[in-house]
Every structure is written in structure tokens, then in C-alpha cells.
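ingest -> validate -> predict -> emit
validate: passed (alphabet ok, no gaps, 663 aa)
predict: started
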Amino acid sequence: MEEIVFDKTGLGKSGETYLVDRSQRFVTAEGFGRNDFPTQIHSRGIEAALAGQDGRKIYLNYAGIPVIGVYRWLDQQDLALLVEMHQSEADAPAHRLAWIILSVGLTSAVILAVGVYILARQITRPILAITQTATQVSDGDLTLVAPVTTDDEIGQLAIAFNRMTRQLRRLYAGLEEKVALLQQKEAQLRDSFTQLKKEKQTVEAQKTQLTQAYQEITLLNQRLKTENLDLMAELRVQNQRLYQLLEAIPLGVVVVDATGKLYYTNQVVKELLGNKVFFSDPPLKLNIYSNSSSDIKKPYPLENLPIFKALHEGIGSVDQLEIEYLERIIPLQTWGTPIYDEWGQIAYAIGVFQDITERRRAEEERQRFIEEMFEINCNLELALDEEEQLTDAAGRFVPNQFLSFLGYESLVDVKSGDAVQKEMSILFSDIRSFTQLSERMTPEDNFKFINAYLSRMEPAITENRGFIDKYIGDAIMALFGGSADDAVKAGISMLQRLSEYNLTRQRPDRPPITIGIGINTGDLMLGIVGGQHRMDSTVISDAVNLGARLEELSKRYCIPLLISEHTFLRLEDPNIYSFRVIDKVRVKGKSEMVSVFEVFDADPPDLYRRKVATKTLFEQALTLYHLEAFPESAHCFETCLRENPSDQVAQIYLQRVLQSFSR
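emit:
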């Protein structure tokens, strides 16, 4: 085959045509008796064809010789087809032809050129046709046939090429049939094997199930025999227990079958009514009444008893029945319940009867007891209301807070001599020039005026957790058991309420009033004083005396509110108030001096602003006064008065300084 190709195609002695697989081994060599080809070959043409490329080029073949080659990749056969010829052998005729052309000359060259052209056309046309067909065959189209245009070697090459493609088609078709047949047989064998494997597993599983089922049936038969015996014994025990239970309960129990015939009664029913009361044939004549609590008794039909209705209507009950039997009246409560068989049909009905004689008697006694307790509660509420009224009335004379400090809840428990020591804040207040006001009023108007004033001052004290210990004419004495802030806030609130009250006193016969308030904080004794027939609550201590003195001192300085240093030092945050130091006073019977502060939060807005503006200057002047630096002190007081002419305290101290100059 190879020799024919060489001879007919003009490939010469060096020309080669071969097929190469992906392992770079020759496929056609051994088939045509050629064993001199290497097993692993490399060239640019082979590598390009194996890479799936088609073309022609000059390159070094597998032996390292320059060749002109054509290569194609046959995708369906998974092979590379290569046709090669040594470059030197291909170029030799051209070299010889060139020398002839040069020797003949220009004339021969033209003739030769024409002849060469004609000859080249005749030679290359079939070769190109065969090459084109080979290229398409290498692309995988084995149905193509190379055209045979001449009877020379090229024609023979085309015939040989067509014969080769026919053989390749037959070989490829045979291979496809064998592969398809093998795949079909493989699939059949695989399906058969899988089916056999499944059938084997099914048989083994069925065998195992049958074995287990046989063992379970054997064990079940043995268990059923044992359980039947146990159930029979248990049933007898349960029946015995049920019988004992029905006999032990303190209620009458009756069971009838589906036709209403007696099936069972316990001993309570026998003792209560007898066996044949409801179930004799015909039934005994009974007088049964419902609504026995009413004055008129209504007959109750026997067939409406819950035990008989349960055979047709289900569960039922009757709370009260009265049965007159053998000169006895028996109050009963009864229930009826059906009992169903395994098919859901009523097989029995059970009735329960309870003698409610004792319960009715207890209910009657309970009703009488409720009525008696209701009457007692009404009387008790009246007594409590009277006591509450007395307590409220007593609280107006002796504050409840005072009693609580003494540890009492009621004024009844108080006795003379009871006392307790406690730190408290004491507030004294008094109306300025009250004597002159009262002289212009009748006694009745005096009382109205004082009550109107006091009724406005009391809330200011109570709202700040204080209480009024006593009224002394127009004066008020109040105590505060909490913080000192409560007393100071109460004093400020009293002055603010007084300003509102004075808005209603703008007539000549109703002039505005002013008050003075003094507050001190310290230990004092709260207690009860008096004799057997007259007692009163009071507080005693130096702290009380100092509080009263501060109220008197407010008159001297024309200041509404003064507090002691004891109160000032116990304020939680003194900076929330507007204050200034006024004086130092000596406690009666004591050698210590106590500082006195003015709290002017309730002053009119203009006066308040001026006092705030001159506070530092005023306190500087007061310090110079106590240091007896009178000229400097006088200058500071004069400056204060120029800025705040209404500052009466500065006026008083300026007068004192001027008097000191005159001594």
C-alpha cells in the first residue's frame, strides 16, 4: 500500500504517509509489515495534529530531517494523519529545472515556462483534489471519494486512496457495531446481576421475617395463655374490690340493665329505701316531690329519675327530691350515668342516691348563722364609723403624729407622764400687731378672721410632713419629725399662701397682715402633761425656747422667716435656698452664741432680686460690725441701702453703727 502511494503520488523515495495515536505511536506501521518505525515519535506536525490542528508546513520530522508535511486530526478515529516528503528531494527537480532554464536561454525559458505551467496544472490539479479530499477525511468525513481524472500514477493514487477510505469506513462501522453490541450485553448483564441480587435479598429478608414471625407467634401463644389466666384472676380480684368499694361508700348505689331491671344495690340503698322501692313489679306507690324548699310541693314522675333517664338520655342529676315512704320523709340528691358496652350501646345504668338530711339541716343552720353574722357586721360597722368619727375628732385636738411618736395608736391609751425624746424641727409663727387688729373687730369677727388665717396656714405644714402641736391664739406651734428641709419649705409655703390671702385684704377694714416665723432644730421631749381629769400634749426643751425666741427676733428685724444655725446645718443642700446671716443670739441660760439666718425665698420679686445682689456686701458689712470695724461697716451698710433701700436689717445695723460712733 505504501509503495503504491509513493509511486502514484510522486512522493519519491523519501515520502511517507502514516497515522499516529495519542500515545505518539504509529498505527499503520505494523499493519503493513514495517517494524523499523520508533514507538515514541515527536515532530511539530505530529504535535500540531494531536493538538487538533489541520495544516501544512515545513518542519523537522520524527527523525530530525526537514520535510514538507500535511497533517490532519481525525476526531472520530482519534488519530492523526500525516503525509511528509523530504525537503531536499522535493526541491531537487526545481534546482535541475532552473539550470536547464538558465542554459537554454531566454527563448527556451519562455517555452519552458509555458510547458512547465501546463505540466504543473496537469500535475497539481489531481494532487490538490486528493489533498483536499484527504483533508476532509482527516476531519472525520469518511464518506468522501477522491476524483480520478487521469490514468497515470495520480489516478492510481486516487483509486488507492478511495480504496483505503472504503476500508476505513468498513472497519469503523464494524467497530461501532461491536462496541454497541458489547455495551448492550454489558447493560443486560448488569441488569441481570442487579435483579438477581435484589431477589436474593428479598428471599433472605422473607426468610428472616418468617423465622421471626414464627418465633413471635410461639411466644405470643405462650403469653396469651399466661395472660388469660392472669386476667381471669385479676378480674375476680377487681370484681371483689369493686363490690367492696360500692359497699364501703356512704352513698346508695343502684345498677339496672338496659331493660330497667335491677342488677345490683349496695347496703346503703337497702337501709335507705329497701330493695323493692323502685324496682318491684308493679313499683310501690311513692310520693316523690321536687323543689322541696318551696311552699308548694310538685309531684315528680318515677320515670324521670336520673337512673331511668340515663338508659335513654345520658348523664343526669336532680339536686333535691323528697320521698314519702312508710311515714318517712327522706330528702335525696341523685345522679344517673349510662354504662356502654364495647359496641357503644347502653348496657347498664348506675344511679347514686344521697340522703341530704344532715346537709339540709347544716344549710339551715348556716343560713341562720349568716343572718346573725350580717346583723353583727352591721352593728360593728356602725360602731367603727362612730369610733372613726371620735378618732378624727380627737385628732383635731391631739395630732395622730404626736401619738405615733409616743408609740400609741389611740388616744384612749394615753396617760399622763408618757414622754419620748426625739430630734425635731420646731416652727413658731405669729401675726404682727394682732392686738391692734383684734381691737377693731368684734369677738365673732375675731374668730372668723383667725380661723380663715389658720385654715390657710395648716395645709402648708401638713403638706410638708409636719403637724400642728397647738394654736396659741393667733400663733402656731408646729413640729416636723423628718428632715429640717420640711420645716423650711413649710415656712416658705406659709409666706407664699399669706401673700395670696392678702390679695383679698385690700380694703381699709381688711388691711393686709404680716407674720413672723422662727424655726429651730434640736432634741426635745414630747409628752403628756396634766392631771387625772385634764391632760394635754406638749414639747419641752431649750430647742423649743430658741424657736420661740427666733420668732420674737423676726419682729425686731422685720424679717418674715428666721432659722437657727442648728436648722441650717441639717439642711440637705442649703444652696437651694436664698439665705443670709442676720445675727448671733445667746440661748437663754447658755453661754454659747447661735447664728441666725434669714430665708428670703418668699420675698416679693423686686426685694428678692435686690437682696440677692447685695448679699455678699451685706454679709461683709455684718462681719466688719462684729469685728468692731465700724467705719468700714457703716460704709458697706450705706452702699447696701443705696442699692436696696427697703432692706430694713441694713437700716437697723447702720443705726447701731452710728450709735457706736456717738458713744
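The two ends are 164 Å apart (CA to CA).
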